[in-house]
Specification:
heterodimer; A: alpha/beta; Alpha-Beta Plaits; six-stranded mixed beta sheet; elongated; B: mainly alpha; 2 domains; binds adenosine-5'-triphosphate; binds magnesium ion
């Protein structure tokens, strides 16, 4: 539906985006993950026609948007990284203005405004000035404005940056609903891997202007390893249980630890049931169980030698 | 576009302080500089030694001797205090046969003051010496005074007067127009700077993504700035005309047309400045420099007619303030009409068109 072709942006000496190729299909949610300065905002600005690429192209249904940006602008809802609102006005006044410039008016405008206020949960505070809002509320109204004209695609640039966990959860849940209930296509930018993991069907990892890895969360983490580690602690040693586990063919390795055992299994082979069953038969008391899967954080570390957030 | 225009008024309603203070400042400055002190004489606090007789006569003699200074009686301590505080430049101590001038710093008027007072002393000495020789000194003094008021030789200066019936050159109007135009430049350029602010906060991007086109954004902001600048000047002129009784002449239409052309030129210059600056910080630094220097060069603070420096006069030729002041003074002080001021007005519009073209282009290129 939407794709970028060798998208590149050079600011003076600085290559902010370098041959970025990515695509969005109808109804999917795609994450753009990368540390500060990776080029996420630059890429998004080019996709949303606000920034002219140095080279490369953005295609909407196969047609270049650079020559004809109006078509994609109509279906795009962009939530900028900064709070792009008139802070001395109320939320309602902001929504009215931005609704009007999209040609909404009268009852239709009022109805739409109440609808988006409902979505972001600010119906009660709509008459308050934006500058009196908390950080989380500002972020939410920043999103609401982008929803007024019923976009098909919503592009969000770090919508949860610098806010409390509660507001963050609210926003994440909201994005999930937009996707699942309204069928919106989402391009979600973040440098929090948990958010992208939780929300996105597919993920692009960017660093220094380049897409360095892409795929579903599982595909990405499998770059790192095809195995997972399960650590099980018991109240006391159960040698019989260890024996039986060692005989199980789908368990690659069993080692005894101070408090129990450590198993290595092929990734995604769903061995927990087997372990529970055996433990039941041996009447072994499990005190804790821990499955260690490589995270996107680990993937990023693996790919770049650096931590995602430093 | 209408939404954009109305939005700015809505925002102004929430934060009226800046524009409001420009209005208040104009009024305060016009009143302080042009309204109250009609004479331009320098006030000189004067006190007398106890030995001096007939202090009132002394004061009269001093004041009769000159128009440049205004002597008034006061206490010694008080006058010294005022000098120390810088309230007055000089104080005069009158003694029987001598005088003393107190001051904080020497300036160009000091010599004049010295001369005036010394002359007065000399003259008085002569008259009183002569009067001492006659039987009726008071009568003698009166005769001398009458004689001097119609001396045998009269030196008179003739300056061409204003047209019959029209108001003449007038410091009050100079101040009124100068200050209103000067402060309106601030109002206009700061209102326009909302464009730069929209760019910084990202609201401009939101607008660009909507079906509104960028030129509509510019028109929206420019028309808002235009209306607010125009309204500010006209309101102040009307206020001084009707409340403070300033005589701005008969041709209100020509005055308003001049203001309209001036505001157009300033809006355009504002766009040019916005095109040239890189950040809002830079803008805040540049605007006072530009407005103050344009006001100085264009004769908002003092009549450009008193400037003789060729370079300054040459620069003043490209400053809209020059033409606006020229036209306003022609209309209000010298009773001229639209037909006489079409040239300065045309130049204002021309400056406007040029600056706007370049400015919009520069802003566009930055985006
Ligand atoms: N207008 C600009 N002029 C010059 N350089 C720029 C400009 N915008 C971005 N850059 C540079 O491009 C690079 C990528 O910036 P970008 O804002 O796209 O990163 P980001 O991934 O969004 O980072 P963050 O997580 O901090 O938002 C940075 O090195 C930045 O300094
Ligand atoms: Mg960014």
């Amino acid at each position: 539906m939407l794709e970028t072709v060798n998208l590149k942006k050079v600011f003076k000496q600085n290559v902010a985006a370098d041959d970025v190729n990515l695509y969005l299909d109808q109804g999917e949610s795609v994450g753009l993950l990368g540390p500060n300065g990776a080029g996420k905002s630059t890429t998004i600005s080019m996709i949303s026609t606000l920034l002219r690429p140095t080279s490369g192209d953005v295609k909407w249904h196969g047609k270049s948007v650079i020559k004809n940006p109006n078509e994609i602008r109509d279906v795009l809802g962009v939530v900028p990284q900064e709070i792009a609102l008139y802070k001395e006005l109320s939320a309602l006044e902001n929504l009215k203005f931005f609704g009007k410039i999209y040609g909404l008016k009268g009852k239709q405008l009022d109805k739409k405004i109440q609808e988006v206020l409902e979505i972001v949960g600010l119906t009660e505070r709509q008459k308050d000035l934006v500058k009196t809002y908390s950080g989380g509320m500002k972020r939410r109204i920043n999103i609401a404005v982008a929803l007024l004209h019923e976009p098909v695609i919503i592009i969000m640039d770090e919508p949860t940056v610098g806010i409390d966990p509660q507001s963050r959860n609210y926003i994440l849940e909201m994005v999930r609903q937009l996707k699942e209930e309204k069928g919106m296509t989402v391009l979600y930018t973040s440098h929090y891997m948990e958010e992208v993991e939780r929300l996105c069907d597919r993920i692009y990892i960017m660093d220094h202007g380049k897409v360095i890895a892409t795929g579903t969360k599982e595909e990405l983490t499998s770059i790192l390893s095809s195995e997972e580690t399960i650590i099980v602690d018991f109240d006391r040693p159960y040698p019989n249980l260890v024996n039986k586990l060692e005989k199980n063919e789908s368990i690659l390795q069993v080692t005894e630890t101070d408090n129990g055992i450590k198993l290595i299994v092929p990734k995604g082979s769903r061995q927990l049931g087997t372990i529970f069953n055996l433990a039941e038969k041996e009447e072994a008391q499990i005190t804790s169980i821990n499955v260690q899967v490589p995270t996107l954080e680990d993937v990023f570390l693996h790919l770049t030698g650096r931590k995602l957030r430093d | 576009m209408k939404a954009l225009f109305l939005l700015q008024w809505q925002r102004l309603k929430r934060e009226p302080l800046l524009i409001g203070s420009m209005m208040v400042m104009t009024i305060v400055f016009v009143l302080a500089m042009g309204g109250f002190r009609v004479s331009s004489a320098v006030s000189v606090p004067t006190y007398f030694d106890a030995s001096v007789q007939n202090q009132k006569a002394w004061l009269e003699r001093l004041n009769e001797a000159t128009e440049g200074f205004e002597f008034f009686a006061t206490e010694e301590n008080r006058s010294k205090e005022d000098i120390a505080l810088g309230k007055y430049p000089y104080a005069l101590q009158v003694m029987e046969d001598d005088f003393r001038i107190f001051m904080l710093a020497e300036d160009e008027n000091l010599q004049v003051l010295k001369q005036v007072v010394a002359q007065t002393y000399l003259k008085e000495k002569r008259v009183s010496t002569a009067a001492a020789q006659v039987d009726e000194p008071e009568q003698f003094r009166k005769q001398v005074k009458e004689y001097l008021s119609e001396p045998p030789i009269i030196v008179s200066k003739v300056t061409p007067g204003p047209l019959e019936g029209a108001p003449s050159y007038n410091q009050k109007l100079q101040t009124l127009y100068g200050m209103s135009l000067f402060f309106a430049m601030y109002t206009i350029i700061f209102s326009l700077s909302k464009i730069a602010e929209e760019k910084r906060t990202g609201t401009l991007n939101r607008i660009i993504l909507s079906p509104i086109r960028k030129w509509q954004v510019y028109i929206g902001h420019m028309s808002y700035s235009y209306v607010i600048g125009f309204t500010q000047i006209v309101l102040i002129v009307l206020m001084f005309k009707y409340i403070f009784g300033y005589n701005v002449g008969e041709q209100m239409g020509a005055v308003i047309l001049t203001i309209a052309s001036f505001v157009f030129a300033v809006v355009a210059i504002g766009m040019l400045i916005l095109g040239l600056i890189k950040s809002t910080d830079q803008l805040n630094a540049v605007v006072p420099i530009v407005t103050v220097s344009m006001a100085m060069l264009g004769g908002a603070f003092w009549p450009i007619e008193i400037v003789s420096n060729d370079i300054i006069l040459a620069i003043s030729n490209v400053v809209p303030m020059t033409y606006a002041m020229e036209a306003l003074k022609a209309v209000s002080m010298f009773g001229q009409g639209l037909a006489d001021i079409y040239e300065p007005l045309a130049i204002l519009v021309l400056i406007g068109v040029l600056c706007m073209g370049v400015g919009v282009n520069l802003i566009e290129r930055k985006a």
